Amino acid sequence: MEARLLIKAIGFIFTMVVGIPGNVFILLKFTFIKITLKKFISANTILMVLALSNLLVVFSRVIPQALHAIGVEDLLDDTKCKLVLFTYRVSRAMSICITSFLSCHQCVLVAPITRYWTYLKEKLSKNVSLIMILILGMNILLYPSTILYGKAKSNDTSPYSLHLVYCDADFSTYMSFLFNGLVSVIREIIFVGLMTLSSSYMVSILYQHGKIVKHIRSSDRDQRTSVEYRASRAVILLVTLYVILYGMDNSMWIYTLSLSTVSPEINDTRILLAASYAALSPVVIIATNPKLHRKTKNLWKKKINEVQKGGIKNISFVSSIS
Questions:
Q1: 168 phi and psi angles, rounded to 5 deg
Q2: pTM to 2 decimals?
Q3: What is the topology classification, in CATH, of domain 3-293?
Q4: Which of 161, 192, 246, 297 would staple 157 via disulfide (CB 3.0–4.6 Å)?
């Protein structure tokens, strides 16, 4: 195996090894918390959707790249290519949009209590699921090209093609090719701009909060630090990770525009950067979310205590759990 293919295989396999267990853990743990405690804040629902989107990115983009790097050829036919391309485009778009929505949601939660912000807090908390459904619908409608133009890789390609490992997206005209690229760029600029603005606002709020409590004794300071401020720091870290990876990816893309031919190394690096967020974001989420650190046994005990306080004393499976 060539050195380039070996490095490529290691990079994408590492992304799989980190991304799949991390995102699955978030989905299963939050599902367990929702079933057992029945107390589920809207931010955790957003994180579940983000984990699912990232997991689909790994399945539709990273796994094919890893298989191709180790020598697996002709894996997908035309129908499977359409499905894989559509899944990747929509799930990556959802990952971007949901991260932006998470940042805006947290920004509203920590905003000062004024008439305007209070109204926005109430409306946002009641319509989180609806907003995410609308975002999904938007991204599905923006990517009919993957169904129309996706096909298995072949030597017969149009001048306006996107080559994606096992698949090609052959656009019939330059205008359709240009429109497809502009849709992605404009959407990403809008949502990256939103997450940057909301995160910057949160940073200013946290800075002001830090100035207020800096003269308070450390024991009191810990008590006054709310869940919202800790969550805000976690969201800011998540957004920072995305912006860094997004910036590196697009910097390389701008650089390739000055080249007559793009080397496979640069192309592979760009793809890896684009997929890295799907693998690294669950690490940030797990490290910064206290609910994901709680032991499952403790959650079961808490649930049993709540049931017993409600008047149900005889639960036959308590002994098997404790």
A1: -125, 150
A2: 0.84
A3: Rhopdopsin 7-helix transmembrane proteins (1.20.1070)
A4: 161
